[in-house]
Every structure is written in structure tokens, then in C-alpha cells.
Here is the input.
Amino acid sequence: MAGPDKPSAEADVVEQAVPDAEYWNLRLYVAGKTAKSVKAMKNLQNLCETHLAGRYTIEVIDLLENPQLAAGDQILAIPTLVRRLPEPIKKIIGDLSNTDRVLVGLDLRPLPVSREAGHGF
Here is the structure.
């Protein structure tokens, strides 16, 4: 199995730099201090420091304290990360532990391109 920074032999990954002008507004919906919520917060903080240093804000919304806020971003599961800026809005559900999938989901890294026809991601 390939590591988080090493794509498998079957895929070519072209790294794409995030333009310096882009500022990221991220909102993480959690429900209290559950293990999954805490893990999602730590994973998000590490990801942002590594890939968006100085160009992001994270707003953590605890739905146990403010359940009415779930409606605005149509939150159906938690934890959920919502990328509000740059547009378009993107959502990722889970503890954000799969760094490659989170980077692809946030458009920080392009999808891997298969070397063989018919083989996807």
C-alpha cells in the first residue's frame, strides 16, 4: 500500500500549487468533544498548517450548542468540513484522516490520473 505522500505505481499525480492569493474559509461542524470530532479538528489543523499556512480560517461549530446552524450548510452528518471560500462550496464528511482524499476534496491536489484505460481512482 502506498503511503500518504507516495501515490501507487498505477497513478500519476501532478502536484498543483495553491495560488498565494487564495484565502480559505473553512467551517467544521462537530457534536461535542467526541473522539471523531477531536480527531477531525486535529487533522484539519495539521492539513491547513502544511498546505495553507497563513491563508485560512477555521470556524468550529458545535451542533450540540447551536443545532440551528446545521440548516444553513445543510449538514446531515458529523463531523463535516465545509469549504466556504474559495468557491465553489465543498463538503467532506468524516474525521479527515485520509489526507489524500481530503486534499482532492478541497481541490488542493488534483485527482490521480490512471495509466491504464478504464482504471480509475
User: Anything to note?
Assistant: Helices lie at 35-51, 99-105.
